[in-house]
Design goal:
mainly alpha
Amino acid sequence: MSATKTKLAPAHTLSRRGEGPNPIDIHVGARLRLRRTLLGLSQEKLGEAVGITFQQLQKYERGSNRISASRLYNLSQVLGVPVSYFFDDMPSPDQITAESPAESMSETDEFESMARRETLELVRAYYRIEDPGVRKRTFDLLKALGGDRIALLEE
C-alpha cells in the first residue's frame, strides 16, 4: 500500500526559540490593540470581558504570547469583529522574511499615529455623523485640507 505524500508549504514565518516574537503574532497583536483602542476599551476592561489579566492582554498585543484559536474567537466576539479581522492587511510570507527593520519602523509609526487620542476622537466623531451624504462631504473636506486634492479630482 503506497501512501501519497502531501507537499507542505514552507513555514517561512515560524520563529525559533530566542529569535523574538513571530511576525504573525505581532501583526495579530497590533490589530487587537487597534480595535481595542478604537472602541475606547482599556486593557483591564477587555481582559475582564474575556477572563484574562491586563498583563496577559499586554503580552498578546506585543506579540510576545501567542493567542489561541479559542481566545481569538472570544476576543472577536467581545470586540465585534470577525476572526479574520486580526489577519487583515497581513503581508505575504516573502514580505515578512524580506522586511528590513526600517520598514518595520514605518508600520509601527503608522500604527502609533492611528492609536493617538486625537485620531480616535476624530474617527469616533466621523462615525457619529448619521447622514451618509454629510459623512462623504466631511471625508472629502478632510482629504482636501490634508492636501489630497489630486484624489478628489480623480473621483
